[in-house]
Design a protein that fits this description.
Blueprint: E1 10-13, E2 16-20, E3 29-33, E4 42-44, E5 52-53, E6 64-65, H1 69-80, H2 103-110, E7 116-119, H3 127-141, E8 147-151, H4 153-167, E9 172-174, H5 179-184, H6 192-195, E10 198-202, H7 203-206, H8 209-217, E11 222-225, H9 241-257, E12 263-267, H10 276-286, H11 298-305, E13 308-309, H12 313-316, E14 318-319, E15 333-334, E16 340-348, H13 352-373, H14 377-396, H15 398-405, H16 417-428, H17 453-465, H18 473-487, E17 492-495, H19 499-509, E18 517-522, H20 528-543, E19 558-563, E20 579-582, H21 589-596, E21 608-616, H22 622-640, H23 648-665, H24 680-704, H25 712-726, H26 729-742, E22 746-748, E23 757-760, H27 766-776, H28 778-782, E24 787-790, E25 800-801, H29 807-821, E26 834-839, E27 846-859, E28 866-879, E29 886-887, H30 890-895, E30 905-906, H31 907-919, H32 921-946, H33 951-954, E31 958-975, E32 985-986
Parallel strand pairs: 6-26, 7-12, 7-13, 8-10, 8-11, 9-10, 11-12, 16-21, 17-19, 17-20, 18-19, 20-21, 24-25, 26-31
Antiparallel strand pairs: 1-2, 1-5, 2-3, 3-4, 14-15, 22-23, 23-24, 27-28, 27-31, 28-29, 30-32
């Protein structure tokens, strides 16, 4: 007759101990390894396999550790928890430690029955992490069962990587390049959105009629929309290609958001984009009623605050301080954003040969526009875009110019003037709202007909002759700027507009920047995954063999990345690069913000990021674009502390005027007369008014809609609770240093105030080396290279973050815990389950217990009750003998971990003391049970507090302790005696 096991009870099977989970049935047990994660769950059939009740074995008095055993074992245990009992089900199982401010959207989400949020934090603050936290939590609680992320195709693989590596969510990519393969694996009548519960979908791919309707019918119950501002339109939007694309996306999202039970997270750093109606339409996707709210009234703003969070870096650089309304700064968290962005505009002058070529190109362009103007509007627009393509390529590089002059214009095939604008604008302009950067870095064409061929080919041949620093002064100036950055220890990214320019620079710069400088180019010719691989390859080559074989690393090699705007959005480059050079001046300052945002973001180790903007002071274009657009943009940013997107109409109005002036006056005309042309002064005044209006709206928005739904005190309370249950950063760092040293790794701790250190694992046990190789890379461990351990959670490949959820830290903790529980483990064992210490930290005999509690949680959700088994580790301590125990409070108990041996302890005394406490454990069972009941009550209150605004979800919530608790460690602290210790002793460091 088989036994019936309750959820939370312990069983022994397959040579190890397991926790029974609520999904178990009489004929099948669903088990999780004791202390293991959800990934280790197994099903066992008692009819075919031996399963028996198990009790957690008490510590052995013969296996005694030193004074640090209790702290090491406690931290190892807490790091290993993947099923915490607190209200945040996901925090114990993710591979990132969120900043305190990143918990605010999560707290907002947990107070809503159906989560609808617009997350508009500034660039680089961590919107992806905030969305991932909410998604992981909703999935863990059973509030959501399926997930889709809608994003641009260039960001899809990065989203996939972030979800997999940080949150353990394996999502399938649904792109134009993958959908055929995915559909071949479907059953008859099955939708791929049903087959794959977690997907990342290209917004542009899914908006087509065929795929849109299938997606809407089978849409998951949780949807995240990245760059959500590109999915709505203003009420007065025109009929251009970009507007039409946004309208299709808007139509898709309206259908997705129409289901009132669907969770929806909208992410954007620019919710306003300068247009009130577009902002209202965005709010309408969150909740229809928000679109018509009176946002001037306190009640309207309070209603919006439940669904909208928007913070600048200055708001979160220091968080949970007295200035935030807290009593003290004990929980303050400082986030390492670069504090300064050093910016310099660097002019260059064309060589005489290049000036002559540009003058002849302008003359050709003037003739072409004049001739086309007599042929009709269609021909005029085709000529206009061809001329812009010609001029932009000409000032980019000889390589881009030569390519453009030989290539047919994209707009030449247009049948109407409107179609010519739709074809020509994306490849010639730099729209702030154009998130379709794929394919936009190809060199545009200038040829419109066979008749123009001979003249353009002659200009192309002359451009080719100017390749190299002798004919290209811009290239020569870049080389000088890069050498200066490299000499100051920077690794820059050089951004270009066109593929031929990027490839030209990579070829020309090779060998010109020093022997230890590595150079690579990344353009739209590579797939998004290949781009990331190229960047990682460059970083690895620059690292070289520094620090291999135990040698101290020499001067770090510099790396220079040449890139087009295919990398200007979404890709995080702050781990490898710390400076930006704008080789080609974009025609919209927002594009420069996007480029600089790749390195100036959270996780950047440099306190100062450098930015160099190159411009031609005599090419007739760059100087005025810089003066009119960029100077104004910088002034607004200085005044507001944030970047305000430049309206497309503003940017195109300025650049159109520049080109018209250039065609009329030539390169050497007086640029002061730029807006003296008929109608242009009025146009400039209008542009100025529109931009100032957009800036004022953004300023008002930031103050009016500041996040007030969650008070910092509420965040502080939850942060304190999480740290109490899971540990904090200092505890993790101390654990890692001590454990690695005890495990014979070579630790170098510079004590430079950063908290960072390095370790070589060559001397560590094979089991630990294998575990570290699996998380950090085999080559790093096999070649005994130095492994950097960083205090910041934002790390690069081959580095470990000193946070409990980092995989490398988890590997160390797992080894320490397993070796403590298995006395037969060969090699060093840093932690033991027993210890006796003679110390002046106590005045009476004191015993410290490390106890593991298990709880049976009943969590109501929209989809029904969810039964879970969770774990928690606590320290309990008492003075005196077990039969007359005087229990200490939490602070006094925790303080015992810092006690150090001040005297020796006799071997026989050690055995006697441990045996006495182990024998008396049954006498302590009542107190341990009472403590577990109190802890369950506190956890119940915590769950209710976090969800206080959602009565439906807390109704039926239960937290029940599973008896008996597991005593993992027993440590006795004896007071220092004045008499000298006996000669036959063991030191406190060994007892």
């Amino acid at each position: 007759m088989s036994l019936t096991y309750t959820a939370g009870s312990l069983v022994a099977a397959r040579g190890r101990e397991w926790v029974v989970l609520p999904e178990s049935a009489a004929d099948m047990l669903v088990l999780r390894p004791l202390g293991g994660s959800e990934d280790d769950i197994a099903a066992v059939f008692p009819a075919f396999e031996e399963v028996r009740p198990a009790e957690f074995a008490a510590p052995s008095p013969s296996d005694v550790g030193d004074q640090r055993s209790a702290g090491l074992l406690r931290t190892a245990l807490r790091i290993g928890f993947r099923s915490g009992a607190g209200p945040f089900r996901s925090l114990a199982s993710i591979a990132v430690e969120p900043r305190a401010y990143q918990l605010v959207p999560l707290l907002m989400a947990l107070r809503q029955r159906t989560v609808r949020l617009l997350i508009s934090d500034d660039v680089g603050i961590g919107k992806t992490i905030e969305a991932g936290l909410i998604a992981k939590e909703l999935l863990a609680q059973g509030e959501a069962t399926r997930l889709t992320v809608l994003c641009s195709p260039s960001l899809a693989e990065q989203w996939q990587s972030e979800l997999r590596e940080k949150f353990g969510i394996e999502a399938e990519l649904v792109l134009a390049s993958t959908v055929s393969r995915l559909e071949r694996g479907l059953d008859l009548g099955q939708s791929l959105f049903d087959k794959h519960p977690y997907t990342i979908i290209s917004t542009d791919f899914i908006k087509s009629t065929r795929h849109r309707e299938d997606f809407v019918r089978h849409c998951p119950d949780l949807v995240i929309v990245d760059e959500a501002h590109s999915c709505v339109t203003a009420d007065d939007a025109g009929q251009g290609a970009a507007s039409g694309t946004n309208q299709l996306r808007h139509e898709l999202l309206r259908k997705v958001s129409a289901d009132p039970d669907r969770h929806l997270l909208l992410l954007t750093a620019t919710p306003h984009s300068g247009k009130e109606s577009a902002f209202r339409n965005l709010l309408g996707l969150v909740r229809p009623e928000l679109a018509s709210l009176d946002l001037e009234s306190p009640a309207g703003r309070a209603r919006l605050a439940e669904h909208f969070v928007a913070r600048k870096r200055a708001d979160v650089r220091e968080y949970l301080t007295k200035e935030d309304g807290l009593a003290d700064d004990s929980l303050v968290q400082r986030t390492a954003f670069p504090s300064d962005r050093w910016t310099k505009d660097e002019p260059y002058k064309l060589t005489p040969e290049y000036r002559a070529l540009l003058d002849d190109a302008i003359a050709y362009a003037r003739d072409r526009v004049a001739a086309a103007g007599e042929q009709g509007r269609r021909e005029a627009r085709i000529a206009w875009w061809s001329v812009i393509a010609l001029l932009r390529s000409m000032v980019s590089s000889p390589a881009a110019a030569a390519q453009t002059l030989k290539t047919r214009s994209e707009s030449a095939t247009a049948r109407t003037a409107q179609e010519a604008d739709a074809l020509g604008s994306p490849v010639a302009a730099d729209s702030a709202d154009n998130d379709r950067l794929e394919g936009m870095d190809v060199a545009p064409g200038a040829a419109e007909s066979e008749e123009a061929g001979a003249r353009l080919l002659e200009l192309s041949a002359r451009a080719t002759e100017l390749v190299g620093p002798a004919g290209d002064a811009k290239l020569k100036a870049l080389t000088r700027h890069l050498k200066g950055l490299i000499a100051d220890g920077y690794s820059p990214i050089v951004f270009c507009r066109y593929i031929p320019t990027a490839e030209y620079l990579a070829t020309q710069l090779e060998g010109k920047l020093g022997r230890r400088t590595k150079i690579a180019a990344v353009t739209g010719t590579l797939s998004p995954q290949q781009r990331l691989e190229r960047i990682e390859q460059l970083a690895a080559e620059a690292a070289g063999d520094a620090g291999a074989g135990g040698e101290a690393p020499g001067p770090a090699a510099r790396r220079v990345l040449i890139a087009t705007d295919c990398l200007s959005e979404g890709v995080n480059l702050q781990h490898h690069f710390d400076a930006v050079v704008h080789y080609d001046l974009a025609w919209n300052p927002t594009r420069h913000d996007q480029r600089e945002g790749r390195v100036d973001r959270y996780g950047q180790k440099r306190d100062q990021v450098r930015v160099i903007t190159m411009f031609g002071e005599d090419n007739g274009i760059d100087g005025k674009v810089l003066e009119v657009l960029f100077m104004k943009h910088r002034q607004i940013m200085k005044d507001l502390g944030i970047s305000v997107s430049v309206p497309d109409e503003t940017a195109s109005g300025v650049t159109d005027a520049v080109v018209e002036w250039l065609l009329l006056h030539g390169r050497q005309g007086s640029q002061e007369s730029l807006f003296d042309l008929d109608g242009h002064q009025e146009s400039l005044d209008r542009i100025e008014r529109e931009w100032n209006s957009a800036a004022e709206r953004e300023k008002t928005s930031r103050s009016k809609y500041a996040q007030r739904a969650i008070h910092p005190e509420e965040v502080a309370r939850e942060v304190a609770a999480v740290r109490a249950a899971l540990g904090g950063a200092e505890e993790v760092r101390d654990f890692a240093v001590e454990a690695l040293r005890d495990l014979d790794a070579l630790v170098r701790d510079p004590a430079d105030g950063t908290g960072d250190f390095t370790a070589q694992a060559g001397g560590a046990p094979a089991g630990l080396r294998d575990a570290l190789a699996a998380t950090l890379g085999g080559r790093l461990v096999e070649e005994d290279r130095q492994i950097p351990f960083r205090t910041t959670p934002a790390i690069g490949r081959g580095e470990a973050a000193l946070v409990r959820t980092d995989p490398a830290i988890g590997a160390i903790a797992s080894y320490v815990l397993d070796s403590a529980l298995d006395a037969n483990t060969p090699g060093p064992r840093p932690a033991r389950r027993c210890g006796v210490v003679t110390t002046d930290a106590v005045t009476v005999r004191t015993t410290l217990l490390l106890v593991r509690y298990r709880f049976h949680l009943t969590l109501p959700s929209r989809t029904g009750e969810r039964q879970l088994v969770a774990e928690d580790a606590r320290l309990l301590a008492y003075e005196g003998m077990p039969s007359r125990a005087r229990w200490l409070d939490d602070d006094a108990t925790t303080a015992l971990l810092a006690a150090r041996a001040t005297g020796n302890t006799h071997e026989q005394l050690v055995r006697n003391q441990i045996a006495r406490d182990l024998g008396a454990l049954p006498d302590l069972a009542g107190h341990l049970t009472d403590y577990g009941t109190r802890l369950a009550s506190e956890l119940d209150a915590s769950h209710r507090r976090v969800r206080k605004a959602n009565e439906e979800i807390v109704r039926g919530l239960k937290v029940v302790p599973q008896e008996p608790a597991d005593v993992l460690g027993v440590y006795v602290y004896l007071p220092q005696q004045p008499a000298a210790a006996s000669a036959s002793t063991v030191s406190g460091a060994e007892a």
